[in-house]
Design brief:
Layout lengths: L2 H7 L2 E7 L6 H11 L8 H6 L6 H11 L6 H17 L2 E8 L1 H5 L5 H19 L2 E9 L4 H11 L8 E5 L11 H9 L3 E6 L5 H9 L5 E4 L7 H9 L3 E4 L1 H6 L11 H6 L3 E4 L4 H4 L3 H10 L6 H13 L5 H7 L1
Parallel strand pairs: 1-2, 2-3, 3-4, 4-5, 5-6, 6-7, 7-8
Helix pairs in contact: 5-7
The structure holds 6-chloro-9H-purine and zinc ion.
Length: 327
């Protein structure tokens, strides 16, 4: 059928990609060599063989180890540029990239090195690929709110280089409410706000993210399916969910794509979008996620494809004028 071509070529936005999760094993080894960083894996193949995750934490341990090869501004640029080349191939016209500054500042990398390298790649994506690219600074939720405040202060000289803040890392035991005060400060600064919630955590974490952090979107949110009342609210308020199907399978949030709740979320009128999360670790980029999802939903066609692409563009933080040109 014509569907795979339509899925591949339709213009779309990516709203949930951790740029450190786009580091392919080959680039990890190249940067390790360039920077003289020792890796606890003998080869690209040995590293890839370690990508057998049983939950979010077993993934995060390897993801933070992979990020340890990033030291210099050029490293951050090279990582993001490699992603943008793949994004262009996937017909992504707008991308909002999560980055985890605390993963790097904890190793002594200045936050300006991180932001300037990523920001320079975003500028190159706009100029050379026609992708409108933006950065979202994420706080690590396994660390304290005081550490999030300190990271925000450190980043403020580069305030013009990021459009928003997010909340990621280990969800269980770290409810959104732990970060209420720092998110209030981010709102005062005019920053867009999003948070991971309802990936491994319960539906109440989604409610906290909305009510306490005042987020505009929920990252993942798939466990909303367990709460009919929350489903009604998310549909009524058209709160976008940035869903990541291959991620959910690899981290055992769902047993397989056929069992993924996305069709029910879509049918209930939620503003769901499809995203890649950590594409180098989870087996595919955005179009790979779309193709896999539609293979598991043989009754879906152009109408569902169009809805998902339109949702992604509408749920973005792109200026209204830019959105009007897309949808
Ligand atoms: C993440 Cl899949 C996922 N969940 C939470 N935090 C993350 N950081 C990178 N990938
Ligand atoms: Zn994520």
């Amino acid at each position: 059928s014509a569907l795979p071509g339509l899925l591949a070529r339709m213009p779309k936005a990516e709203l949930h990609i951790h740029i450190e999760g786009s580091l392919e094993p080959e680039l990890i080894f190249a940067l390790a060599r360039r920077n003289g960083v020792a890796l606890p894996y003998a080869s690209v193949e040995a590293l890839r063989a370690a990508y057998a995750f049983t939950d979010l934490q077993t993934f995060l341990d390897i993801y933070y180890a992979g990020a340890s090869v990033l030291l210099h501004e050029q490293d951050f640029y090279d990582m993001a540029w490699a992603y943008f080349e793949k994004a262009a191939r996937d017909h992504i016209v707008h991308a909002e990239l999560f980055f985890d500054p605390q993963t790097h500042t904890a190793r002594g990398v200045p936050i300006g090195t991180v932001i300037e390298g990523l920001s320079r790649a975003c500028a190159a994506a706009r100029t050379h690929l026609g992708i409108s690219a933006e950065l979202i600074l994420c706080f690590l939720r396994h660390l304290s709110e005081a550490e999030a405040f300190a990271t925000l202060e450190e980043a403020l000289p580069w305030r013009a280089h990021f459009i928003g803040v997010g909340l990621d890392s280990s969800e269980r035991g770290h409810p959104p409410g732990k970060f209420t005060r720092v998110f209030v400060r981010c709102a005062e600064l005019g920053l867009h706000r999003v948070a991971h919630a309802g990936e491994e955590g319960p539906p109440t974490y989604i409610e906290e993210a909305l009510d306490l952090l005042r987020v505009a979107r929920i990252d993942h949110g798939v466990r909303a399916i367990e709460s009919p009342a929350l489903m009604q609210r998310l549909a009524a308020e058209r709160v976008p969910l940035t869903v990541c199907p291959l991620s959910n399978v690899k981290l055992c949030v769902v047993p397989d794509l056929a069992a993924h709740p996305l069709p029910q979320l879509l049918a209930a009128g939620l503003a769901v979008t499809i995203n890649s999360d950590d594409p180098a670790y989870f087996g595919g980029y955005l179009n790979d996620n779309l193709l896999a999802l539609f293979s598991a939903q043989p009754q879906w066609g152009a109408s569902e494809a169009y809805t998902l692409a339109r949702n992604s563009l509408e749920a973005s933080f792109a200026p209204a004028q830019e959105k009007a040109a897309w949808v």
